[in-house]
Automatic annotation (TrEMBL):
Pfam families, sorted: PEMT (PF04191)
Primary location recorded for the protein, binned into one broad class: membrane
Provenance organism: Occallatibacter riparius
Coiled-coil regions, chain positions: none
Membrane-topology descriptor: Multi-pass membrane protein
The name this protein goes by in its record: Isoprenylcysteine carboxylmethyltransferase family protein
InterPro entries reported in the protein's UniProt record: Metal_cation-efflux_comp, Phopholipid_MeTrfase
Annotated keywords: Membrane, Transmembrane, Transmembrane helix
Compartment(s) of residence: Endomembrane system
Length: 211
């Protein structure tokens, strides 16, 4: 993954003199590695669930499509800003790039909080054996905090890379995530005991007091 994103970031501008690129990669890979090591040590079952990911592991055709779209958009989140860096279509200030990197870190912090609260955080839509409803930690604020963290991180990437134009692909990602979570909620209501009651208690899906 590092090699792919390194090429995605530094290939289009054809230069390593791109501090925003180094900052964005650091803001992505350092917390990713820290979280992975923590989960591997403290909750290997969760790590196994998270590694079972991608279109091939989804059961529903609609979710296979969503996962495929998400993968393309994720790569585009790095590639489009890199081309923007080369051609100067929509540069942002240094402070905006720093803010984008901070958004990435916030997104990973939320992800870490979700993993600590919920050992059943699967990368695919499923209900595992002995899974129970979690209503503490970030789940006390919104029903899908992992998606909240992911979106904050994703919207931070183009800014961290110095591009406004790159945010366009995140509109597609937002639509894909909303589609995914609405489909996921149908399954959870149907198959996870207590989820319907939890949904009545925690009213918002992604953004507290908004939606």
């Amino acid at each position: 993954m590092f090699v792919v994103l390194f090429i995605a970031v530094f290939g289009p501008p054809w230069t390593l003199h791109y501090w925003q690129g180094w900052t964005a990669l650091a803001a992505f890979f350092i917390p990713s590695c820290v979280i992975t090591v923590y989960v591997a040590k403290n909750d290997p079952a969760l790590l196994e669930r998270r590694l079972k990911a991608g279109p091939k592991d989804e059961k529903e055709i609609g979710q296979k499509i969503v996962q495929a779209i998400a993968l393309v958009v994720f790569i585009a989140d790095f590639v489009l800003p890199a081309f923007d860096r080369r051609f100067g279509w929509s540069p942002v200030s240094s402070w905006a790039s720093i803010a984008g990197a901070i958004m990435m870190l916030i997104g990973f912090w939320i992800t870490f909080a979700v993993f600590r609260a919920n050992s059943f955080t699967s990368a695919t839509i499923e209900v595992a054996e002995n899974q129970k409803v979690i209503s503490t930690g970030p789940y006390a604020l919104v029903r899908h905090p992992l998606y909240t963290g992911a979106l904050i991180m994703l919207f931070g990437i183009p800014l961290a890379l110095g591009s406004w134009l790159g945010e366009l692909v995140n509109i597609v990602m937002t639509i894909a995530i909303v589609w995914r979570l609405l489909d996921e909620e149908k399954l959870l209501v149907r198959e996870l005991p207590g989820y319907a009651e939890y949904r009545g208690t925690v009213r918002h899906r992604l953004v507290p007091y908004v939606w």
